[in-house]
Amino acid sequence: MSKGHKDDPKGLITEAYRIEGIGAAECRSIFLDWALSLPVGAEPRSHIEALLARHGEEGHPMTEVLREGLTRAGAPRRRGGASGRRN
């Protein structure tokens, strides 16, 4: 696997676009791995937008997964319980 760039350091998303016949389920799994590898405090939305600009091939399942990621990458929500009340 080749190394990627600042928005895809492990090259996971890039490789997903190279896999012939990849399906939505595999793309979601790759996306999850990518998201979990982001640095703590990183804003995923800007990275996803950059990845779509770079790769956004229409009709590719990873493009759809990235678009779903954009709609779900909203503002952080307040945590409940004691952890939500700490200052």
Tell me what you see in this structure.
By secondary structure, the protein is mainly α. It is 56% helix and 0% strand. The protein has helices at residues 12-18, 24-36, 44-55, 61-72, 81-85. It is globular and about 45 Å long. The termini are far apart.
Helices and strands in order:
Blueprint: H1 12-18, H2 24-36, H3 44-55, H4 61-72, H5 81-85
Helix pairs in contact: 2-4, 3-4
Summarize the structure.
This protein has 87 residues and is mainly alpha-helical.
Instruction: Tell me roughly what share of residues is in helical segments.
Output: 55-70%
Mean of residue pLDDT values: 86
Report the β-strand fraction as a percent range: under 5%
Report the sheet with the most strands, covering strand number, pairing sense and barrel closure: none
Low-confidence spans: none
Protein structure class: mainly alpha
Please give the alpha-carbon distance between the first and last residues.
43 Å
Shape: globular
**Order of SSEs:** HHHHH
Rg from Cα: 15 Å
Number of strands: 0
Given the structure, what is the number of helices?
5
Q: How many domains, in number, for the residues?
A: 1
